[in-house]
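name: query_chain
kind: protein
chains: 1
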Amino acid sequence: MLTQAQRDIVKSCAPALRTHGLALTKNFYARMFQANPELKHLFNMSHQATGEQQQALALAVLGYAENIDNTAVLAPVLKVVTAKHVSIGIRAEHYPIVGRHLLAAMADTMGDAATPVVLEAWAAAYGQLADTLIEAEQSLYVQAATAEGGWSGWRPFKVDRVARESSEIASFYLTPTDNGALPPFQPGQFVSVRTMDDAGMTHIRQYSLSDAPHRDHLRLTVKRQDAGNDAPAGVVSTALHLDVSEGDVIELSFPQGHFVVDQEKDTPLVLLSGGVGITPMLGILGHVAKEQPGRSIHFAHAARNRDVHAMNDWLRNMAARHDKLDVEIYYEEVSAADVAGRHYDKRGRIDAAQIAAQDHLANADYYICGPRGFMTAQIDSLKRVGVPESRIHAEFFGAALA
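structure:
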């Protein structure tokens, strides 16, 4: 049991974590991977190479220290973390390993300030957090294993069809190799894909399910991540694009995630996406249009240009069939061959505040997915015009928080 005195100690470390948190997490990951290299297969090593994972964990540790007196504030973040953990196969036995190396990294980084009392307080705080996550994750594992069409761990799926959606995006239509039932899922959720490289190293990445549920397949729509800006090429996305063909088999985790629409509500929906952030929106749109045909949907998508723009024909056809659906496509780059109203609707970038100003969207719920800069801009824009946080829902790409 974490005592109040221990909470006070943990909270008192927040200023130091704000300054030295990144050094701490770099030390932690280096220690853990050296002592337990078998755990590398659970982590995105590209995010390790760029420092994104270390930064994400540093922010998570700081947030825990700052809110140790009221951890309920962290509940939304912990829901994201547990879903990600379950999708990659984090189990209860991994937590003692993480805790041991985290405390050792604290002792290294904090020096003389890492007294036995301080480390004991952090051990108790970590234990409390670990117990919370383990309990929540176990519940998700049980749900996955006992659902109709569910499973535990990894399940093989055959690639029935590959569709090239743009110069850098492809869709993969998947069916279970055992011909069993497909898993139930909510539109907007994701699965993990596990592949193995030539050196025998496994790699796990998360991709949104891009089709509505209750089909005869699962669909993943994946952008090939090329190298650039000191970031390596995406290992799994490149393998899917270059090495996976129709008839091949890939392994999936059970669907997870909380970026889902409340279908008990009938308020207007605004779906804002940038680039490959369109993927969860496709499933959400397809499902809501079918199940709630009277619900107003405003679908705004931003792409660099037509060459990289995916699923335009499908969206246009959906808009033609559904009176309550408005589609707006934004291009940053417009060529002489691009036709307004067919390929794109507006030149430039999405401004969520302008969309929110429309009278019929006064009580809308906003769902946002795309690159971090795009999402931050849209969220800030909505908040500036008074849209409450309770009506803003976001799905960030990038490293997990923990």
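note: The chain has a mean pLDDT of 94.
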